[in-house]
Design a protein that fits this description.
The protein is mostly helical. It has one domain: Cytochrome Bc1 Complex, Chain D, domain 2 (Orthogonal Bundle), CATH 1.10.760. The chain is built from six helices and no strands. Helix 2 packs across helix 6.
Length: 115
Amino acid sequence: MQIGLIAGLLIVTALSSTSHAMKDNNASAEAGEQVYRSNCLNCHGSKGKGDGPIAASLTPPPADLTNPATQKKEDDALLKVIQNGKTGTSMPAWKNDLTKQQILDVLAYLRTFPK
């Protein structure tokens, strides 16, 4: 029973630290917009709707980042996809190409999209 409690506390702590990461690192939606335009726009489009210039050539199509289901996801879930990519899609891992701060900034920018 104690092991389950400890594991639960570790999970909550890990999730909390990710959610607080945006605040602790002063994530900037403005800086994130620049990173997004350079790295994400071709697939996700200028407004995040998954309709970028190369979207039609991708199977499955890129995610609509304005979709309420996407916007309802916790920060840690979205950070994980940005960092590690998404299996079975064209979404690449960005953890080796973007800094942690740039990834946090992109997430801050994604949170400005209409829900």
